[in-house]
Specification:
The protein is of the alpha/beta class and 253 residues long. The chain is built from nine helices and six strands; from the N terminus they run H-E-E-H-E-H-E-H-E-H-H-H-E-H-H. The longest helix is centred in the middle third of the chain and has 22 residues.
Length: 253
Amino acid sequence: MGSACARILTQNGFSVIGLDQKGTKAPDCVRMIPYDATDPGSLTSAKAALAAEGVHLDAIAYMAGIYDTDSLIEIDEARMRRIFAINVFGAYETVKAFFPMLNAHGRIVFITSELAPLDPLPFTGLYGITKGTLEHYAFSLAMELQLLDVAVSVIRPGAVETPLLDRSMERIESFTANTAHYPDQAERFLRVTRAVESKSVPPEAVAKKLLRVLNAKQPRFLYTLNSSPLLKLYGILPKQWKLQAIKTYLKRK
C-alpha cells in the first residue's frame, strides 16, 4: 500500500518521504528513512534527520498497521501491546513528532478499516478495537486541528490486496488450529472471513483515494472504499441482535 501511494503521488507531482521499518529505498520515494513504530528511538532519529535538513511537509499519511487474530482470553500480553503500539500509539507519536514540520493548511490522513465503526467481532476484536480507537483519535484530532486550519481525514477501506491480507488469513488459520476454547467456532468464523476478504481491491485504489484527499480544497473527514455489504448489514443491527446472531451462527451444531 505504501509503495502504491508513493508511486501515484510522485506521478502527480508530490515528493514523497517514506518511513518504513526496513528503510529500504523505494524507487518512487525521494528518500526512505528507517522507522519502527514500536521503537521511540527510531522516531527520534527520523525526526532529527528531517529537521536538520529544514524539511517542510504538505501532508502526513499514517498507514502502518498490523493484524492479529485470537480470543481475548487466550492472547498473550506482548501481542496485545504490540498491536496497540503500531495501530494506535504509532499514529499518535508520528503525528506529534512531525506536526511542527507541517505547512499551513496541511493535511493529515490515516488509513483505518471498515471494521473501525463496527462493534467488534469475535476473534478479530483486538484489531477492530485498535482501528476503532484510531478513528476516535483521528476525529478528536480533527476537532482540534480545524482550529489551526489543518484538515484531518481517514480512509476506511475494506479488504485490500496487500501482504497484510495474506497474514490476516494466516493468523486466523493459526488461531483455528491452536485455540483451546473455540475450535469449532473458529472454523466457522474462518469460512465467513474468507468470503468477505475474497472481494479485495488493489492497493492502487487506496492510493488514488489518498490523492483525492490531498487534492481536495475542503477534504471530508471520512472516505470509504470497498465496503462489505455483509459488514454493513451487521453494522445496523441492534447490539443484542448482533450478539444473538453471532451466537446462533458460531454455536450451531
